[in-house]
Input
Amino acid sequence: MSTFLGMPVHAPRGVGHLRGDEPFPAAARTALANPQLRSNLRHATTTIRGKSGRVIAELPDWQELRSAGSALKTYTMANMPRLLEQLEEKVTAAGGVVHWAADAEEANRIVTGLIQETGERRAIKIKSMATQEIGLNEALEEAGIEAVETDLAELIVQLGRDKPSHILVPAIHRNRAEIREIFLREMPGVDPALTDDPAELAGAARRYLRETFLSTKVAVSGANFGVAETGTLAVVESEGNGRMCLTLPETLITVMGIEKVVPAWQDLEVFLQLLPRASTGERMNPYTSMWTGVTPGDGPQNFHLVLLDNGRTAVLADEVGRAALHCIRCSACLNVCPVYERTGGHAYGSVYPGPIGAVLSPQLTGIADNASLPYASSLCGACFDACPVKIDIPSILVHLRNQAPHPRTEKAAMAAAAYTMDRPRLYQRAQRAAKLAELLGRKGRALPPPLNGWSASRDLPEVPDESFRDWWRGR
Amino acid sequence: MSSRELVLGRIRQALASPSAVPVIPRDYRRGPHPVDLDLLVERLVDYQAVVHRSSDIPGTVREIIGDGWVVVPPGLPVEWQPARARIDDGLSPAEIAAADGVLTAAAVAVAETGTIVLDASPDQGRRILSLLPDRHICVLRPEQVVASVPEAVARLDPGRPLTWISGPSATSDIELNRVEGVHGPRNLHVVLWEAA
Output
């Protein structure tokens, strides 16, 4: 039998940042022991929840916009081949070059090759989840190309030799005092009198990167939206580093996940209202850039669009799980999640943390490589309520828990329970036996091995003196 | 097999069992709605833009930057031209960055979000002009203002390079609070033009 080459496959191992070094419970334990981290996270997520809530309340049609956004995404998934072909055609017609990357390795190879063709040894980067996911910076470094992160939070992470911990604000785990220390230690030419005033810290980043912006000839970006109808790409940002990267260099390379395609120009009217309010809690983010191919005399004269699969088609193949691809990367679900607020993003191991990461990462890698993530949730549902495109994250979590590998003892215990509950006499005897076991000294304590895993974080229920059946009979 | 065929083949395989495709509900507010200029001003000011109402553009520019000089795009209306202006005839990035400010027109503004949109028309110029100087002065004609985002999207031409601007450059990267002033212009002045 020959393998059909068109079968969706997961993101390959050994490249990129979708898999952690240890399972979530172990990583979470380390994170929870860090009071500074918890305090920083609590402060930041509380701030953003308040801001976001206030600007969302200003819109009388927020729920209608969410429904439209959700339907648009479902439509996009169902029509993806046609929309991507249309996007390719329009970008090409406008002077851009479209590349297709089956996985992280191929995407890295394409981008590295394109930069090498320009003869440059340095590229400036706009914050992009896709390029973090594929580990582009490491691939470029191996090829002797310096990748300079220009987003303030990414810069903090890069200078601090740290890992991003939030989709929107990768340095959310750092407070202003820690950021000042990183800048003083790592930023060449920084003013030693720098204080921890956020405006001063932002000013330091401005001075540090100015010359780099003006002298670098290649930029790499992600994309928030790619409009199939017109070939228009959009990047949503705050600082102006995005505008610098999209305007000043001669060559622009954009890496976009295939799910970021949007059917029509008009559809941006929905997403441009949903994203900023759900994300930074602003009515509109300071800057949004949109470009269609190449404009003579304005901006980069060479434009490349790399369309990335890297496991996305495997997510698409799951009829329940594919809704995870609807995500517009606003990070509202992180900011409302009681688990994320306490553990932070590093514990999730993947560049996609929080509730959306718990449903996206295991599907991109295959459930075996991220088996603990679907359990990194209390299923409280706050993420579903906060999601601007109404992704039912709790349902996908439960769906993935069913797919995750379960220990044989758990399967055996469940089968035994089912057998017993099907047989009333047996069930009655089991109830009495439970009481007996309790009297034998296991009251409130853990189950014996191999079942002690279940009771490690749970107290055994106290068995009542008399079962309902016994009480009913003796009435 | 090319990667293009491979990826498209995988997508088709993933979608092999057809699912219900929804009709897109468009019952959110799409306009047209009456324009509230006061709301625009309020929202601009809320995000730290400075708003002026003026029929004398050169005079207003002088008020803002004193003796400094501004870069202007080649198609700026002559009557808006300040005395100390340098027309962009292919200026280098260093020359643009050295200006005390840049004066442009705009394409569209959204009252509800306090947003102005530039579309690189001759009265707005190349995108680099409104990016490098630390002070951006943007003149808005009242008829360019719409109430909501959908009305702005409908007016814009996606074939042009578009820059949506809502307040001066800012960041939320330090403790998720908005701080003004990173890489883009740190001062945004919006002049509502009142025909004399």
Remarks:
- Chain A has 22 helices and ten strands.
- The longest strand of chain A covers residues 251-257.
